Amino acid sequence: MKSPITGYHKDEEDHWVAELSCGHNQHVRNTPPWTSRPWVESESGRGSKLGFQLDCKKCDRGEPTDV
After folding, report:
1. Are strands 16-20 and 25-27 parallel, antiparallel or unpaired?
2. Which of 37, 50, 44 is nearest to 3 (CA)?
3. Mean pLDDT of 37-58
4. Which whole number is the average pLDDT over 36-54?
5. Is the pLDDT of residue 63 over 90?
6. String of DSSP letters for 39-58
7. pLDDT recorded at residue 32
8. Fewer CB within 10 Å: C terminus or N terminus of the chain?
9. pTM of the full structure
10. What pLDDT does residue 34 have?
11. How far apart are CA 66 and CA 40, in angstroms?
12. b/e string for 32-45 if b means 16 or more Cβ within 10 A?
């Protein structure tokens, strides 16, 4: 299921986590070559992705919200 990004926070290991409108959280790491998300490295980049829809695997599995 797709869910828009509504905000961000960092986890205990200093990795960026997207907060989704469905109530789940999802890591948005920039770890080339596996995942290329250079936009996550800057505030303006993260801001440009607010509202962008990510596939939420937790919704697909019917998991309770994270928040």
Report:
1. antiparallel
2. 50
3. 96
4. 96
5. yes
6. GGGSHHHHHHTTT-EEE-HH
7. 85
8. C
9. 0.91
10. 87
11. 21
12. eeeeebeebeeeee
